[in-house]
Every structure is written in C-alpha cells, then in structure tokens.
Amino acid sequence: MTGNALSLPLARSGRRRSPRARAIRLGISRLGVTLFTASMAMIFLLPLVYMLLTSFKDSTQMTALNAPLWPATQQIYTAADGQTYTLYEVPTASGVQGLALEKPGRVTSTFIDPKTGQEVEWQGNWRGLSPVWSLTVSFDNFSTVLDVLNFPMLLRNTLVVSVLGTIGAVSSAVLVAFGFARFRIPGKNGLFLVLIMTIMLPFQVTLIPQYIAFLQIGWVGTLLPLIVPTFFANAYNVFLLRQYFLTLPRELDEAAQMDGASPLRILWSVIIPQAWPAIIAVSLFHFFFSWNDFFVPLIYLSGHADLFTMTVGLQAFSATYARAGSGTLTQTAALLAMLLPVAIFFVAQRAFMRGVVISGVEK
Amino acid sequence: MVIVEDNESVHAPPPRRMSLARRETLMGLAFLSPWLIGLVVFTALPIVASLVLSFTDFNLLHPADFRFIGLDNYTRMWNELMNDGAAGKSLGVTARFALMSVPVTIVLALGVALLVNRKLLAGKPVFRTLFFMPVLIPLVASTIVWQGFLNGSTGWLGQILRSFGLPSPDWFNDPSWALPGLVLLGTWGIGNMTLIFLAGLQGVPTELYEAVKIDGGGPWARFRHVTLPMISPVLFYNILISIIGVSQYFTQAYVLDPGSNGNPGGSTYFYNLNLYKEGWSYNQMGFASALAWLMMLIVVVAALVLFRTSARWVFYAGGDR
Amino acid sequence: MVRRGFTRFAALASVAALAASACTGAAATTAPSTGAATPSAPPPQVTPATTAGGGQIVSVNGVNHVVVQWYVGLGSGTNPSQITVEQKVVSDFNALQDKTPTGTKGMPILLSLNIVQNTTATDILKTQLAANNAPDIVGPVGVKGRAAFQGVWADITPLAKTAGFDFSAYDPNLLKQLSTNGVLDGFPYAVYPSMIFFNKDLFDEAKLPYPPQKVGDKYTMPDGTKVDWTWDTVRKLAMLLSVDNKGKDATQAGFDPTNQVQFGFDFMWSEGRRMGSDFGNGGFVAADGKTAQFPDAWKAAWTWYYNGIWTDHFIANTTQENSTLLATGNPPSSGHVAMAQMFQWYDCCMAATSPSKTIKKWDVAIQPSYNGTISAPMDLDVFSITKASKDAQDAFTALAYIAGRGDLSATYGGIPLVGDQLTYYHKYIDAMLKPEFPEIYANGGLINWQVPIDMEKYAPAIHHEAAMPNYVKSMDDYSKIWTTLGTTKGLDMNKVFTDVTTALQTDFSAAP
Asked: How far is C176 from chain A (nearest CA, A)?
C-alpha cells in the first residue's frame, strides 16, 4: 500500500521525463517498497529472531540476571585453588573494574581482584552489577541435538512419507478437481458438499475407527497409513484446485475439444500448464503438511522409533529436553529441522514466476 | 464401439444428446473415482462409525461393552448448550476466536500476498520465503517460542512495549488476553493462505489492470474492480477453509496448557479441547462423537450460507456449472 | 446388534483397504522398538510370525520369542538418562532369556520397550486399548496415572503367587494404598518421599542458617530466637530470601515485586491436593465416599500458598514461574529459588537438566509442621500389567526382573519399598548426582538422605492422589480453580473454597 502511495504520484507527474529521471524514480519506489516489506518482515519474524539467538545461547545465559539479548557468556575467573568465580563490572574509587565475586552478601560482598589475587570488600548491591559478558556463539546446542537426534533416519522417513504422499495427493487431486470443475454430473453439488464435509469432522472422533481399520489389515507400525490414503484425493486439495480450475477460461479447452482432444489430453496440455501456481501450491502444502503432521504419525508409529518422522522425533526430543536449558535445545532442533523445507520452498516459489510465463501473462 | 456411436450420432439425434450427457457423466465420475474410492475406504467408515458412536456410551478403555443409549448424548449436549455447560462455554470460546482470528488472518495474508507480488519489490524470492517460513516450524516448537516471546516478565514483546513506556499485557496468563495471544500466534500460520492468494494473483490478466489505468482508476480502484473479483474464488476458498480450521482449532491450545484445561480461567477452552477431554480423558467417546456432529452441522450450515452468498460475490472466469 | 454392525464396517473397510494395498509395496516391517532419542543401532533380523495385537510371537535369528511389550511414559522414565538405563535393562533381560529361556511357552521372552513422551502417553495407550492392541507392562506409573485407566489393570496377586513371589516384606499400609478396591493391581515399586530442597549458596548470601534436617530441631531466626520449623517459619524465612533487583528483600519497605529476581520458596510443579496434604492428612471426598469437602488444614494450605504469591511475594506467580529467569517452569533448577518443596523423584531431573551450572551446593531439609504435626505427602509408583495382556505370566517374569534393577529405580529417583534404603541412596542416587555436583561431594560431603527416609513415616494416611468419584473430571475441575491462584490477584479465598466444593460435588454426583 505504501509502495503504491510512493510510486503513483510520481508516475503520473513524470510521464514526460527523461529515461534517466525515470530510472531514478523507479529506483526510489523500488527502495521504498522493499524497505517497507523488509520492516514488515522484521516485525513478523521477531519471534524467529528470538528463536535463532536462543539456539546459539548457553542455557545458563537464559536464566542469568542482566544478560544481553545476543549470545554471550560470563567471564570466569579461576582462583589459585581451582575455584571459579564470575567476573562483574564493579564501580570502585578507581573506576569500573572487572572483579570476581567470591562471597556475595546483601550489604557487603567480597570480590577477588583477578590482577592481584587479593580480596576486596565492596559495599553495595551485587545484583545490580552487570557480569562481564563476552560475545560467544555457542554451538553446543547444535552438537547436542545432532548427537541425540538421528537426523539422517528421521529425514529419510520423513522424505519417504512426504515425497510419496505429495505425488499421491497432487496427482489424485488434479484428476478429481478436473472432474468437479469441468464435467456435468448429476448430483455433483451434493457430492461436492460431501467432499467439503469430509474435512469438517474433527480427527479426534475419526481416529479410533481409522486406527482399528488399519490395525486389522496390519498396517499399524508401518508407514503405509501415512502414504496410501494420499492417493485417494484429499478434500482440501481438491477444493483448492477446483476453485482455481474454475477461474481458468473455458475457451482453450473448448478449442481443444473441437480438435478432438480427449479429456485427459485437455487436462494434461491445457489445464495443467495454466494451473501451475495452484498445483505447486498444493504440492507444497501437502509436502509441508506431511512434514509437520504430528498426531497421526505418532499414533501409527508409536513403538517404532526407527520409523519416526521428523516431528514425532522432534516432539519426543522436545518433551524430553523441554526441562533442560529453558527450551534452547528444542528451539535449536526445530531450526535444524526446518532447514531443508525452507530450502525447498525457496526453490519452489520460483516456479510461481515460471507458471506466469507459461500462461502468457506477465505482470 | 466407434462405429455404433457414429451410427447413433448420425441417425438418432435425441438419444445422441442423452448419450453425450451420459458419457460426460461417466467420464466425470471416472475422474472423481480416486476420491470416491477413498471416500468409501478411508472416510466413510470413520464418519459412519462416529455417527453410530454418538448414539452409544462407547468408552475407549472398555471398547467391547458399549450400549446403545438413544438420544441421551444429544439431550445432554442440548442441556449443556442451554445452561452454559462445558459444551456451551467452549462453543462460545471458539466463536469469539473465529470472530477475531478469521478476519485478521485473511486480511494479513492478502496484504502480504499483495506486497510480495509487487513488481517493484526487490528480492521477492527471499521475502516470500521469509513470510512463509514460520509455517515450517512444528507447532510444538513455535508454541514454546511464542510462550517465551510473550512472557509477561521476561518476554521480548513486553520488554519492547515497556521500553516505549507502553503497558504490556500478560498474554497467556491473563484470561482476557489469552485469545488475542493465540491470534498473534496464528499470524505465523498465514503462509499457506498467502501462497494461495499469490497463486490467485498470478492468474489475474495484466490487460485488466491496464484497462483500469486507462479509465483513470487509482490503486484502490484496481484492487476493488480487478484484483478482488479476479481472486474471489480463492478468497472464498480461504474464508471457508479458515472457518473450518477454527472449528477444529486444537493443537495450539492443547500444547499451551499442559493440563488441556483451557487455562487461564477456561479462556482457551476451545470446542475441540472440550470434545477431546470428553472423549479421551473422561472416556465418553459417544458424547464426543455427538459433539463432533453438532460442530459438523454448524460448519455445514455456515458453508451453505457462504456458498449461497458466493453467487453474488465470487466470479468464476471459467463459469460454474 | 450395534456391535456386529460396527465390526462389519471394520471388516468391509479392511477388505477394501487390503485390495488397495496390493498395488503398493509394503513398507518394511520393523524390529522391536528402541527409545525415541537414540541413535539407531542396526536391528536384529526379526520376522513376525503372528501379527495380531498382543500375544505376538516373533522369530529372532531363527528362534521364536514371546514378545512382552513394556510401555513407559505415563509417569517417570522419559528423560534421556533414564532411557539409556531402560534400554540397558531390556537388552540385559533379553540376553539372559536367550541363554536360559523362562517363558511359559518354553520360548525365550523378548522384552520390547516402547517409550512415549508423557504429554502423549495417555492418548496413545487409550488408542491401543480401544483397538485391543494393548502393551503388557505399563510403568512406572503413579496413583494419578493409573486412576485414569481404572479397570484396565490385572490383579498382580495370582501372577505373583504362580511366580513364587512374596509381598510379606512390604508394609501392609503401603500395599493398601497401592490397591484399588482391595485388589493389588500394580507391582509395588518405589516410594518418593517429600522434602525441602535448599540452595546453600543463597542462604550463605543472606547470612542465614540452614533449615533443620532432623525432626524436632529448631530454627534460629536472624534475631537469635529459636523457633519451631513450621510453615509460618518457612514463610518468614522465605520472605528474607526473596529479593528484588535492588537487593531489597520482601520484608523491607520499598521492595519491588515487579522486579523480583530471587524467590524464597517454590512448590515444584504444584498441585492443589498435594499442597493441601503438605499441611495435613485429608481429601476432597468425605468419609461417605460421595460428598465433596474442603478440609480446614487444606484451606490453610491454599491460603498460605496464595498469600505467599501475592501478599508476601516469596513464591513466583505463574508468569514469573514461566519466565526464562526461573528456567521456564523449573524454578529450583534456575538457581534463583532458595527453598523448594519437592518429591524425591526430582533427583532424576537434578541430574538430567544440568542445573549444576546454576546451582553449586544444595541439601535437603525436613518438611515443616502445621499445628504441631508434620504431613509429608509421598508419591508411590507401581508397575502394572494390563488385563488385555495375552502373556501376563511372562509379563510378570519380565516385571520381576525390571523391579529388581537398582540402577533403574535410581534413575527414576525412587527408593525401593524394601531393603536398606540409606545404602541404596549412597550406592545409586549419590553415584548419579556426584558427577553433576562435585562441590557437594568434595571433601567427603554428602546430601543428607536420612531426611527423606525419615519423612516416609510422616506420609499422610490418605494419599493426596487418592480415589475420587469421577476421578479425571473431578481432578480437571478443581485444577481449573487451583491454577487461578497463580494467575489472579485479589481472589476471595472463601469463594475459591466454595467454588471447588460446588464443582466437585457436581462431578461426584454425576459419577456413574
């Protein structure tokens, strides 16, 4: 919106200016829009920044007083007898000094001067003193997570489920959505309502019958309950693709029909090329859905740690380590787990632009 | 086959039309078949089972001895709805949340989509990824992050607000701020919706914008008369899906309060949390199934109303048959 | 009729789904499970001979084994250090069985471990029970965890008899507390007495003497008066140990509770009935088993706790408790809490969450008294066998082995019910804590484990998690009110008590 406000008056008044002036104007608008978007993204992702910084922190920093926001560690003084003390910035008669707190007290505290090894009595509130922090990026959380979580195994299982599931979900949804969008079928609206209704029942009540059914055919404890159903068209995906197919003009497929193309042919060479953005969106949704799906894999894979998917492994990990280090480990594990999906998304979103080129509309 | 059809097409025009219609039906059904088979195999059983269960006193711990109890579950539900019992209260929480969350997320997602779709924006791929990224954080982890971020005493948001001299609510520990807190948390889930809007925006032909420009229309006119009608099918989809989503809102509230009691003070005791409690904690799966069917009914009605009104504001370029 | 219809649906769906599965390659079937948080070792060659829910027989390296499923997660047992020990116990048992099989079918028993995180353990177990796919052994599990599954557990007594196992060495009172309606439906495993943890460094900083470690010892206040170790003494002491960022304690004028950085006291993972039992024996259920009540001692306890948060500021409110300053809900490990009332099982977490970085020296003190008597609630854990188990006797064989492993109960922080408990502490608990807290054990120092052992005698006769009608619902409903104590300022405590009693009476009356 701000971008518009910035660019439009300029655009109108400057219709007859030189190309150079236009380029400058364009550059300014571009900068304005980009800066605005960047600041929005900053606000939006502030909790993510919190998460990122946390993952590089030592757990002791989380509970420490007067700790900085960035990852840092307190400087430690080791006395001659091997005891360790925390260094504080202590205001003294001779300016602020870095002294090691030996015996904290309410009224007076005893410090050790690290330069001389002598004890110094100090009057005042030690809690108001700031420890000497030094910027330390700690990779301990990452190494703990990588030690404990079997990432290659979790990744393999998750990829099996999400890749096969995405193939199944997208291919079946495209067919069914095409059926709903382009065919005259008696009672189609009723069927469509049934389709919508299937996503309305909460999973809590359908879970048990489903579990019993899968147990009877011996699929509990395998990845099959997570993969096979995807080949039978998920209602969300069908709905979305149908909505998108309906926005596509009919002229092209009618022309193809005149040329004697079969419906499958029309779907393949007319509809799909126009619907790339939606198909990619559906693929991404399903991929990330199965990447993040938690309760269903948990129920079906319980007791089979070698089949755990990323979220199930992560949940087990975070429930175990939530009590340790104020959640630093959980946040680190979550960060690591999202690296691959973020990369996939980054690559895949370019396809939106490709989709635009194919459908011949450039903005 | 081909010959017979040809014969028909030549010699008997009326039956030919019928057969064409029939062919179209069969062809259409063939395309629908993956879903139809899946419906019978994977979905019909649970759905019918849940309906049957809603007339029983089915108990997870003793699955073998359930009795058929007629409409008891439904009368109990009716009483709870009328007398502000757990079912009524939780329905209220869900409705309040829907009123806050659906508009906020729709507007935000559309705004972000418009923003990252702008021609002038540099680094579009990066921004798209950034705005989508939170979707990729498992809820278990993102809820922990938000709990830390929103904590009333050491959370960043409170510290930032206080540094500007502003009061900071105690989000998840204050009954009147817990739902707004969850709305904030929900903004992290706009990625999917944004992507759908983005896909919709990609389909808007540029010529239409040019036409408005020639007519002297400003950015608002372009948005109002071109963008909005052209993306109305996906807007419709997003609204309906977010209503369904809110009706099933569960995991965040479940993760937030380890006892799943909808704390603080029952302010986050969502309909589905109550349903889960009844079915899984209090072993009243029959009653929970009845609750599920009530919610389904409510959403079906909402969907039907939305479908009815959609004729007035949803524009399908391909025509809706 | 209905049931048959249901089964028919299931059968129909199964057939159709099987047909569908024919087109898909079956995913690899799997080995007996290991823990969640383990690097996967190459699993042994396992082929299931029968695939039905329970009573599974699998062939491992060509030898048929009876599978006994051990389900962990309803109570303790899901910390990384605990998982390591559990896995060791399982592999040791399986190795023994391969050498000398003792299964009832003449086959070796294959103990299979399923660790499910506490947050989801109840749901998964219920799903498995509903689908007749239940595990054989469940444990360790406390009174509350078991109450959520009433009617699911098998009577241990006949199994023990067949195995030649004798419970006569056990305290009959304890066995009674561990029974449901007179039936011993769990193997008596371990007790976890309460005690007061205290952070010595914070007492030193305030120049205050440590709390008493022997029943009858007095406490010397800063003004030199010797007072009884009562909850009121704890209140006064805890206020001196509650400090804001300016260094003022909670008794001083100008103390700023909004910038409090140290708290005098904490109830580790507080729970309303436990809080009540800290002050006196009692319960929400009257003697008739169906009337809701609020014992006077419990009222005093709740008021003490509430004032401790909002008036005297020596207990953190919920917001402060969940802040990073107090380790996001684990105040004692943060190093900013001087005293905490906790169960013996918190030992597990003292060793596992490495609070050693924030706490150097700590010890344990006795439970304070109220109206002249000490009431020290005690947690009790059992191992149960499900009624649905198809190899209950084999499950008992495995269970007896599991229960005999001292290193295992030590990781749970539990003390066995029989035998020399102090020796056990020194052998197992100290071994676990020593690497984490070298400063405590330096120069022959020890944690005073006689304290929790002494506290066992003061366990209230009515267990704080004892049965209530409509158990889980009742528990939820009073908890909803209890949690407002930590979040809401200015509550009328008398109204709180009436609300609790009313809510509970409704639930009790609705009990089937």
From this structure: 33
